């Protein structure tokens, strides 16, 4: 079978539509994963009342329980992504995390709840390495960033979906508190909500088989035989260490907000999820839409020779994050807080696109899944694992007052974003030369192949 792409004029309508259908399906999966991951953030108070958990115990559920398995399972699943059917990897992951979401709602004790959240993390680790690899191979280089931007909307669309649909499910479950289901028996409102959120994912996972697996291709030079991903990254330690650390600190700032802002709104302003969920949904839709706009700006910069545009652009956003965070958590009016938080959310949170695009440009095809998993491990373990607990530690052990949650969020978000800014600015010294070298190597490799085809032995 020829590896040459079919010219657009000779493609059927489905061949033209299928790549975008694939992106749409992957975006849907991303949205479902975020919904299953975040809905528990709106159920903190009923879970605490039901199981008698402290803020610190809740932080372990929001952070380490999910993040440990999300990080540890990412690399083996990334390795599978680089070698086996990426559609199969995604299908298995969705079924697993959806079942774990259901088990979260059925948990009667803290250890069982912790284990269920670990299952959600393990399953969700399958999606991103496989999805980024599929998109990079499905689209030509000049359209890859646009496709990645659409998929990159997943966290924000998913968060909006979590607040909108999750808020509705929570309200529905509250009105059916004590509902009796076959086999599982009586369920309190928060348990029913988790079950209702988890079930659809098992059925929707079949959509992974509605598009073809694209042939694997390289946009950069092939890996040297016998060199694994760690040795490859080790050839430019300053670059990869600074990228990992910088994005990890950005993730700390972002995860602090995602994990604790819903609880902050309830404690500070007395709003219930039913009251704040619609506004949070709108904020996340705006933030999601901004990702495409950012992608257009980055493409514009890249076409004009700014090869490190993805990271450079994000550092510009990080520079204005600290003052925005300080102003936001100084607001006493809930509507003004929501308006300022919307700006912070647009500026700070959607950092995954910058990581994904940079990896596709830097790494050989047979290392993309593994590299994505490594970045997921560092950012998810530090962010989702430590950030909620860092915030809770300030609240419980430094201030000793649950009403000081806003101060804790201000300190963690501001400090982490400042560190991220300086570390990522440092990474730019090494990133641009590395990307330019990869372009030269890729051009030489493609010329060698073209010459071999033109002059067969």
Structure keywords:
2 strands; mainly alpha; two-stranded antiparallel ribbon; 19 helices; 457 residues; Growth Hormone, Chain: A; 78% helix
Tell me what you see in this structure.
The chain has 457 residues and is mostly helical. It has one domain (11-215, 228-447): MFS general substrate transporter like domains (Growth Hormone, Chain: A, Up-down Bundle). Helix content is 78%, strand content 1%. It has 19 helices and two strands. It has helices spanning 13-38, 44-51, 55-62, 64-81, 86-106, 110-124, 127-138, 141-152, 154-175, 189-204, 229-234, 237-269, 273-303, 309-319, 321-328, 334-348, 352-362, 365-399, 405-454, and strands at 179-181, 185-187. Strands 1-2 form a two-stranded antiparallel sheet. A hairpin with a 3-residue loop joins β1 and β2. α14 runs antiparallel to α19 (405-454). The model is unreliable at 219-224 (pLDDT under 50).
Outline of the structure:
This protein is 78% helix and 1% strand. The protein has 19 helices and 2 strands.
Lay out the secondary structure:
Blueprint: H1 13-38, H2 44-51, H3 55-62, H4 64-81, H5 86-106, H6 110-124, H7 127-138, H8 141-152, H9 154-175, E1 179-181, E2 185-187, H10 189-204, H11 229-234, H12 237-269, H13 273-303, H14 309-319, H15 321-328, H16 334-348, H17 352-362, H18 365-399, H19 405-454
Antiparallel strand pairs: 1-2
Helix pairs in contact: 1-5, 1-7, 1-8, 1-9, 1-10, 3-4, 3-6, 3-18, 4-6, 4-18, 5-6, 5-7, 5-10, 7-8, 7-18, 8-13, 8-17, 9-10, 9-13, 12-18, 12-19, 13-16, 14-19, 15-16, 15-19, 17-18, 18-19
């Amino acid at each position: 079978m020829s590896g040459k792409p079919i010219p657009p004029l000779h493609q059927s309508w489905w061949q033209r539509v299928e790549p975008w259908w694939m992106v749409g399906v992957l975006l849907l999966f991303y949205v479902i994963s975020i919904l299953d991951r975040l809905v528990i953030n709106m159920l903190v108070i009923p879970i605490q009342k039901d199981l008698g958990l402290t803020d610190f115990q809740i932080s372990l559920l929001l952070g380490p329980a999910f993040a440990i398995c999300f990080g540890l399972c990412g690399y083996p699943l990334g390795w599978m992504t680089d070698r086996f059917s990426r559609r199969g990897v995604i299908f298995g992951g969705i079924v697993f995390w959806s079942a774990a979401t259901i088990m979260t709602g059925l948990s009667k004790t803290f250890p069982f709840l912790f284990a269920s959240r670990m299952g959600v993390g393990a399953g969700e680790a399958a999606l991103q390495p496989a999805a980024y690899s599929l998109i990079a191979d499905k689209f030509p280089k000049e359209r890859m960033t646009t496709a990645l931007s659409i998929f990159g909307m997943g966290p924000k669309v998913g968060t909006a979906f979590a607040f909108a649909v999750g808020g509705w499910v929570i309200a529905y479950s509250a009105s059916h508190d004590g509902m009796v289901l076959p086999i599982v028996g009586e369920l309190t409102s928060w348990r029913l909500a988790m079950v209702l959120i988890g079930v659809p994912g098992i059925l929707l996972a079949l959509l992974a088989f509605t598009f073809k697996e694209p042939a694997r291709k390289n946009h950069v030079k092939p890996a040297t035989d016998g060199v694994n991903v760690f040795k490859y990254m080790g050839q430019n330690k300053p670059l990869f260490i600074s990228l990992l650390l910088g994005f990890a600190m950005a993730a700390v700032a972002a995860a602090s907000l995602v994990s604790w802002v819903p609880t902050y709104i309830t404690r500070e302003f007395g709003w219930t999820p039913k009251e704040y969920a619609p506004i949070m949904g709108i904020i996340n839709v705006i933030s999601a839409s901004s990702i495409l706009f950012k992608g257009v700006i980055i493409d514009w910069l890249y076409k004009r020779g700014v090869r490190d545009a993805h990271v450079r652009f994000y550092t510009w956003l990080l520079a204005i994050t600290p003052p925005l965070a300080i102003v936001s958590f100084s607001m006493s009016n809930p509507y003004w807080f929501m308006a300022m938080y919307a700006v912070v959310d647009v500026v700070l949170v959607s950092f995954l696109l910058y990581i994904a695009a940079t990896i596709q440009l830097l790494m050989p095809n047979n290392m993309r899944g593994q590299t994505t998993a490594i970045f997921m491990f560092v950012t998810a373990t530090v962010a989702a694992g430590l950030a909620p607990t860092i915030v809770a530690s300030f609240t419980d052990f430094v201030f000793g007052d649950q009403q000081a949650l806003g101060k804790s969020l201000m300190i963690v978000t501001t400090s982490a974003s400042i560190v991220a800014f300086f570390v990522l600015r440092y990474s730019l010294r090494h990133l641009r030369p590395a990307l330019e070298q990869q372009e030269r190597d890729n051009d030489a490799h493609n010329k060698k192949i073209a010459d071999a085809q033109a002059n067969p032995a």
